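Example 9 (inverse folding). The structure is encoded as follows.
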């Protein structure tokens, strides 16, 4: 018998006792359990709450890398071209035959499979072949584009990647999708095998910088970290944008996003001029009293608390562009000047930003740098009144898919994913 809180006596029969005992054991045995793949996974699916905002931004349009996107009908025609690229890569190092590449991948198969967040339902032969084609295509494309004699080869002149104006643009964009990745170490392994004791225009990271330079919205001059510090190519690009120092290990948690520090500067500057009557009522109303009197030890401000550019201008803030190694290096000066680095805008900007943000959401140790920047820029643009400031833009060349203009082009590139991130970043 058991007594309830109301004083009513409740009878517990044998079955109830067994059930209660089982329930007690399950509750007592509950604890934080880490999935076996949690420590090895580096490639995962895009979270549903992000994908729903724009599913197309996460789906490759012309080529697949790895198992997650290979069944997409849109990527099937490129499988034949991958075979041609394998043949061309084999010619680069006569001392390395097809069996050498197969043995390389077969020896890493267990490690490769463990990198994915899901079990890969492929037998060993199909899995190794997929990694062989994808890795060889990737490396051959890098070498081909970087070789001075590239356009002199007759076969290369007929390559559809070069003869079709939009093909290379789409391939480059597809390479930077979270679900469309292969582990970086297999790209590095294929690269070393293909270039062993052969002349090469640079290291793997050098070629990647050269290849993605036209699309990366930043101007980097420092050398990248070694190849063994990256999970995959999207991680490499994210690390370049976030501006990791070469001495850092790839996924050591980076410091707070630089924009957080500048938000404090903006708050401090605006709070000073409130007392001098230089702020119009619209900006004064946006900036709550609790933010003006924020204690020094409080948590970092969120980008959401930034007034739009028009309000900031009315408060006396001046905007100007700046040269920087990363578009994240927004700065707010003591004289009330906000400096915003130039940002490359092209047809793939939306997809690039979304996948970088998805990477940050899947790997918290990467920080929230790109997500914070996207929300910050979204706040500067007054969506309701259409009164945002034009953020400086860098006009890309024809490979990137030219889009002229300044800030207005940025708005659709970043604002679509911001609404779904606000609770995540401010929680």
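The amino acid assigned to each position is listed next.
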């Amino acid at each position: 018998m058991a007594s309830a809180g109301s004083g009513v006596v409740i009878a517990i029969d044998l079955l109830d006792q067994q059930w209660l005992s089982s329930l007690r054991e399950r509750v007592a045995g509950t604890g934080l359990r880490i999935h076996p793949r949690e420590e090895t996974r580096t490639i995962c699916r895009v979270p549903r709450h992000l994908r729903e905002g724009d599913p197309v931004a996460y789906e490759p349009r012309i080529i697949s890398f790895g198992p997650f996107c290979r069944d997409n009908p849109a990527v099937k025609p490129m499988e034949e071209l991958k075979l041609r690229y394998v043949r061309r890569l084999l010619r680069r190092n006569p001392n390395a035959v097809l069996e050498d590449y197969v043995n390389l991948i077969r020896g890493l198969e267990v490690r490769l499979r463990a990198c994915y967040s899901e079990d890969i339902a492929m037998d060993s032969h199909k899995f190794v072949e997929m990694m062989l084609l994808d890795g060889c295509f990737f490396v051959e494309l890098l070498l081909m584009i970087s070789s001075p004699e590239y356009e002199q080869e007759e076969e290369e002149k007929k390559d559809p990647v070069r003869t079709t104006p939009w093909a290379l643009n789409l391939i480059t964009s597809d390479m930077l999708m979270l679900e469309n990745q292969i582990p970086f170490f297999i790209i590095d392994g294929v690269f070393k095998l293909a270039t062993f004791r052969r002349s090469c225009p640079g290291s793997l990271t050098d070629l990647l910088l050269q290849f993605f330079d036209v699309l990366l919205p930043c101007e980097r001059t420092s050398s990248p970290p070694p190849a063994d510090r990256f999970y995959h190519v999207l991680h490499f690009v994210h690390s370049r944008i976030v501006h990791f120092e070469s001495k850092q290990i790839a996924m050591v948690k980076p410091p707070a996003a630089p924009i957080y520090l500048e938000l404090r500067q903006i708050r401090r500057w605006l709070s000073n001029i409130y007392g001098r009557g230089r702020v119009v009522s619209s900006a004064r109303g946006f900036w709550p009293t609790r933010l003006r009197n924020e204690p020094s030890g409080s948590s970092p401000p969120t980008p959401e608390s930034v007034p739009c550019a028009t309000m900031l201008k009315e408060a006396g803030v001046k905007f100007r562009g700046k040269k920087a190694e990363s578009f994240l290096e927004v700065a707010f000066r003591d004289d009330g000047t906000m400096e915003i680095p130039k940002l490359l805008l092209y047809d793939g900007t939306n997809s690039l930003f979304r996948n970088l943000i998805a990477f940050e959401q899947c790997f918290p140790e990467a920080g929230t740098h790109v997500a914070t920047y996207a929300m910050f820029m979204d706040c500067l643009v007054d969506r309701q009144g259409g009164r945002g400031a034009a953020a400086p833009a860098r006009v890309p060349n024809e490979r990137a898919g030219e889009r002229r203009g300044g800030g207005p082009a940025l708005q659709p590139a970043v604002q679509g994913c911001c609404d779904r991130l606000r609770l995540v970043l401010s929680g």
